[in-house]
């Protein structure tokens, strides 16, 4: 099942099953029964802006890293929180950190997190984000979570990730 917002009407993308288009639908999703409260803007309690992304690391290519590094340079005391299951690996963390070091971003400005044990804890991490960053226009449910948490979203619209 798909909608025209995700798979355009003129798409020639092959699918393994017959594509059924649902009119007027973007995402079908049942939110969890228990969600954390929206807290005050973390920048107010921390004294600095925390940019955040829960994007798939495969979508965080060089143009995205360059943009995010620029955001950190433009807001000198800011930090970047990135949550992804790949950060269970120290090697993945080191590779990610080195990409930012190449742009002059020091490691202490990066907070890398792996998966949270529950969906409640996952959603509560959005309370640590002052400003959302996305790698692509459709970032799974990141947009829903950021909207639910009233966090603004900055994204790089490009076909070069």
Task: Describe the structure concisely for a colleague.
The protein is α/β, with parallel strands linked by helices. The protein contains 5 helices and 5 strands; from the N terminus they run H-E-H-E-H-E-H-E-H-E. The protein folds into 2 domains: 30 residues, no CATH class; 114 residues, Glycogen Phosphorylase B (Rossmann fold, 3-Layer(aba) Sandwich).
Layout: helices, strands, pairs:
Layout: H1 42-46, E1 50-53, H2 62-74, E2 79-83, H3 90-101, E3 110-113, H4 119-124, E4 131-134, H5 142-148, E5 153-155
Parallel strand pairs: 1-2, 1-4, 2-3, 4-5
Overview of this protein structure:
The chain starts with 41 loop residues before the first helix and ends in a 6-residue tail after the last strand. Strands 3-2-1-4-5 form a 5-stranded parallel beta sheet, sandwiched between helices. With 161 residues, it is α/β, with parallel strands linked by helices. The chain has helices at residues 42-46, 62-74, 90-101, 119-124, 142-148, and strands spanning 50-53, 79-83, 110-113, 131-134, 153-155. Helices cover 27% and strands 12% of the residues. The chain folds into 2 domains: 1-30, no CATH class; 42-155, Rossmann fold. It has 5 helices and 5 strands. This is SPY protein. InterPro entries: Glycosyltr_41/O-GlcNAc_trsf. Keywords: Glycosyltransferase, Transferase. One of its GO terms (molecular function) is glycosyltransferase activity. Pathway: Protein modification; protein glycosylation.
